[in-house]
Amino acid sequence: MKKVIVLLIISASFSFNIQGQTTYQPTWESIDSRPVAQWFGDAKFGIFIHWGPYSVPAWSPKGTYSEWYQRWMQGRNLFGNGDFKGDEVTRYHEKTYGPHFSYYEFGDMFKADLFEPDDWADLFEESGAKYIMLTTKHHDGFTLWPSKEANDRGFAWNSVDIGPKRDLVGELTTAVKKTDVKMGFYYSLYEWYHPWWQNDKERFVSEHFHPQFKDLVEKYQPDALWGDGEWDMEAEKWKTPELLAWLFNESSVKDNVVINDRWGKGIRKKHGGYFTTEYESEAPEFTKPWEECRGMGFSFGYNQNEDVQDYNSPKTLTLMLVNIVSTGGNLLLDIGPDSRGRIPVIMQERLKQIGAWLKINGEAIYKTKPWNKSFQWSIKGKQDYKPKQHYLGGDFILKQTIDPEPGYGVKELFFTRNESAYYAISPKWPGKSFTIRKFKPSKKAKVTLLATGEALQWRMEGRNMIIDMPAFNPNRVTEEDYYAWAFKITK
């Protein structure tokens, strides 16, 4: 009887066809039973790309998203980090372009004439990222590929018919697939000002969203899909369980594609594929693979209003990556190219700096899992300092590691592991020695400083492992080594 009950439960979630292939049903129970491909959990570092007509004005107040330009401008509202009246973007737009200049005129001004997809792909490889997520359509509805559904609002609104006159999704996909980097697509379910979305949501879902989504998948065969813009309507009205069942049963990427958790109101961190956070920190409570996304500053789209001090330092970004990986997550770090297709130099520099650190220390990051503890806090001081912000700025990780607020402790060490070794990562040079509390390695364990390859001496004092450091020689290390120091402890 117990076996019969178990089989009935399983069959309610999914069934098998005659070849033994799993057939997923349009229910969250069935969709959630599909495992997330291992490559995603192994990847640890990805690159987000926000690029579209909003890259032409490329402006919003500091602490806000510039890719929301149309909504800020037409809706006369604004939210983010700061105290806003709400009409800041509207006033900027009218002063710069005039009161009668439509957002849709930016489509023709979005030229992408300097876009070199192979150069982008080379940069992504050099950064150490294992996947990218290109915004193929944001909430303004403009598509970076020749989508007929993009034009059903009554005028051309895609990158082939206007503006660049190029298939930007296709070109970048071709370039990236020449490398070992996985190709993913961000796709917004809703569109702020599409007439069907505003007046006939059922028609929008059936005649616009579903066929457009399927066209994107079948035309370019992505490795990952990142839904967004789902929050205004329940999944049942979006009919996303049916759409995802098609994706997993019938599409050309059914066996390998990875999805996130943004497929309907109230679905995030509950259903779908991997879970997502946005401008948050670590998430040790998740039992599924997860990913934190954020920009190098506060905006995802390029924001010319941000200055160099608004961009996180390479050390900050590296420590954020280490912090996230130590709790089992991935960092999806955003870049915002300009309207001509150039990645701003400071963004290129940050990616190259992270890549240089990963080239030496990547074995402590890629294909790792958390220890039974993700980090070691100092003995004294309160833990887990986080400022109260709408979008959590990157400075929080510096306050938690090298620059604590009065009364707060710090994360002295971060931990990861793989099948052959443990890794301890220190935010700063430990001095003459450092201690891993309540940890007993194998008696034959070897300890190595990854930055130099030096073998280090270690000993036990009670339940604690003491690792002796070599004399510091600045000539043996690079600038990137100072971001964080990784130590390998063999099993």
From TrEMBL:
It is an enzyme of class 3 (hydrolase). SMART domains: Alpha_L_fucos (SM00812). Residues 18-363 form the Glycoside hydrolase family 29 N-terminal domain. InterPro entries: FUC_metazoa-typ, Fucosidase_C, GH, Glyco_hydro_29, Glyco_hydro_29_N, Glyco_hydro_b. Residues 1-20 form the signal peptide. Residues 412-490 form the Alpha-L-fucosidase C-terminal domain. Keywords: Glycosidase, Hydrolase, Signal. Its EC number is 3.2.1.51. It comes from the Bacteria. Alpha-L-fucosidase is responsible for hydrolyzing the alpha-1,6-linked fucose joined to the reducing-end N-acetylglucosamine of the carbohydrate moieties of glycoproteins. Belongs to the glycosyl hydrolase 29 family. This is alpha-L-fucosidase.
